[in-house]
Amino acid sequence: MIVVVDERELVTEGFHSLFSREGFATASFEPDAFDEWVETAADEELKVVRAFLLGQCAAPEVPARRIRDRSDAPVIALAEQNSLECTLRLFESGVDDVVRKPVHVREILARISAIRRRAQHEDASFVAVGPMRIFADGRDPEIDGEPFPLPRRERRILEYLASNASRRVTKTQIFNAVYGIFDEEVEENVVESHISKLRKKLRSKLGFDPIDSKRYLGYRLIT
User: Which region is the signal sequence (predicted)?
Assistant: First the structure.
C-alpha cells in the first residue's frame, strides 16, 4: 500500500486511479488527518505501507518527520517548483527523494524499489525462485527470461510474498498490502481466491508450487 498525503482531493483521487492501474493500493490523507493517523496507527498497519508520497502540504517537512518517528518506509516528496532551499529542507526532515512534477507513477515505483533495495543492502533488483524472477516495480515476473503475465492482484500478492520471503505473512497482512487498510468494499477472503489461482498458474508453469501455506500461520514463498 502507498500512502498519499496532499491537500487536494482531485490529486489524491488521481494517484489512486493511476496506482490502481499498476496494481498498487493507496490510502489518501489531507495533512491534518495524516498527522493524527500516523501518530496513532498500529504498528501492523504501518508495516504494510510500501512508501509514503508527499504532495502539496503547507509544511511537508512536518509529516516527513512524523513518518520517520514511526516507519522506515521510503518517503518521496513531489515538488511543484525547482527550489533548492525547499529540496534541502525536505531532505533534512527525513525525505528519501524529491521528485519534480510531472512524473509518471512507474518512475515513482522504480524510485521506491531503488530506495528499498539500498535500505536492505540488496544488490539484486529481483527475487529468484527457480527459473522465475519476481520484480518489485510493477513488472510482470519472468520465467526462463520470458514475461509471465499475471492479473494485477495476483502479481501484487506474489511481489508481497517475495518482499517478505524470510518470514510468513498472514491473509490479513496480504489483504492490507494489496487492497489497502481502508478498503471496506472487498472481503478479506478474496485473498484465498487470488492465491489459489496464482498457485495453480505457477504450478503449471514451474512444475512445482513455490507458495507454502500453513493454517493459522500464513503464507511463505519458497526461495
Answer: none
2-119, superfamily in CATH?
Answer: Response regulator (3.40.50.2300)
The structural domains of the chain, with segments of one domain joined by +, span: 2-119, 126-221
What is the per-residue DSSP string for 36-105?
A: HHHHH--HHHHHT--EEEE-S-SSTHHHHHHHHHH--S-EEEEESS--HHHHHHHHHTT-SEEEESS--H
122: pLDDT strictly greater than 60: no
